[in-house]
Design goal:
By secondary structure, the chain is an alpha+beta fold. It is built from 9 helices and 12 strands. The chain has helices at 2-13, 16-21, 154-181, 196-205, 212-227, 236-241, 252-268, 275-295, 298-306; strands at 25-30, 34-36, 41-48, 53-55, 61-62, 70-75, 79-80, 85-94, 98-101, 105-111, 116-121, 126-130. The strands form 3 sheets. Strands 1, 3, 6, 7 and 8 form a 5-stranded antiparallel sheet that branches.
Length: 307
């Protein structure tokens, strides 16, 4: 009990020494030490974990609000490069001159043996940002007169362009007459839009209740097909941040967050799922898919096509 309490106090304290005591290191290195205003700066992350710890999110996030004049241009998820080593990349830009400190990044972790959660924060790194224009007040230069253009004969070019325009207009008018005389044929059943939620519900019906990560992937795949989102490639945090407003109503955002959290615990923390909890997870997934189906109009479109 004392050991667990001491570890928790070190995690919440936040300094680099506390992270080293827990066996963590979150190093950040910049590709340059000096850059101009607005230049993209590539960052490299190197994270080393304690042997008993697991990360619960593979994409680092900034600790707190970004300072004025700092922009995160890209953030890629961490990839494993060893037994307990992870590497990642990000791109930032600064719009203030002088010595600028890189944002502090953090990644959440879980120590299963001690039932302890916390965050690993990056070490401080600074870069020098130079202005994009020279200092002072440089004098303006006079504009020069335009040099006369060479003797180009525009008459043949104008005649050719006019003939081409006449041909294109005639072709357009002929296509309009052809379309008016064509008979509109009804769409064949195979041309009707498919319902990804109906397919997802059918897959959930035949799934083992204990396979929670597979059920979460079915929900992600249905969202990717219906809303054109790269839901399968995004992390849980990215998917929740970019969920469209019309899919957040009716408590759907909270439902999705709870489903993703439960699936991540099983997938990354190796949590055990009782049969009753797995069945409840499948029921919640069915309710979320049904609500999204109604919000996107698939249920109405399917009924119209059947009628």
């Amino acid at each position: 009990m004392r050991r667990t309490l001491a570890c928790a106090l070190l995690v919440w304290a936040g300094p680099a020494s506390a992270q080293q005591d827990l066996g963590h290191r979150f190093g950040v290195s910049s590709s340059v030490v000096r850059a101009a205003v607005g230049d993209p700066i590539a960052l490299r992350f190197e994270v080393s974990l304690h042997e008993r710890d697991l990360i619960t999110d593979s994409v680092p996030r900034t600790a707190g609000e970004l300072a004025d004049g700092v922009r995160i241009l890209a953030m890629r998820k961490l990839e494993r490069r060893g037994d307990r080593a992870l590497q990642g990349e990000a791109t930032v830009a600064f719009y203030r001159t002088g010595a600028q400190q890189l944002p502090t990044f953090e990644i959440p972790f879980l120590r299963v043996s001690a039932n302890m959660r916390g965050t690993i924060r990056s070490e401080p790194v600074s870069v020098e940002i130079a202005p994009s224009i020279p200092p002072g007040n440089p004098s303006l230069k006079d504009l020069k007169e335009l040099a006369p253009a060479g003797g180009t004969d525009w008459l043949p070019i104008g005649i050719t362009a006019g003939a081409l325009i006449v041909v294109l207009l005639g072709l357009r008018a002929w296509r309009r007459r052809t379309r008016r005389g064509a008979v509109a044929l009804p769409l064949a059943p195979s041309a009707l839009p498919s319902d990804p939620f109906e397919a997802a519900l059918a897959r959930l019906a035949g799934l083992d209740p204990l396979d929670v990560p597979a059920a979460a992937d079915i929900v992600r795949a249905a969202l990717a097909d219906a809303a054109s989102l790269p839901a399968l490639g995004w992390t849980s945090a990215e998917l929740l941040r970019t969920l469209p407003p019309h899919l957040r109503t009716e408590g759907n955002a909270e439902r999705l967050a709870e489903l993703l959290r439960s699936a991540d615990l099983v997938k990354f923390a190796q949590a055990r799922t009782p049969a009753s909890a797995g069945q409840a997870f499948l029921d919640a997934a069915r309710a979320l898919l049904t609500s999204w189906r109604t919000a996107l109009g698939f249920a109405r479109s399917t009924a119209d096509a059947a009628g």
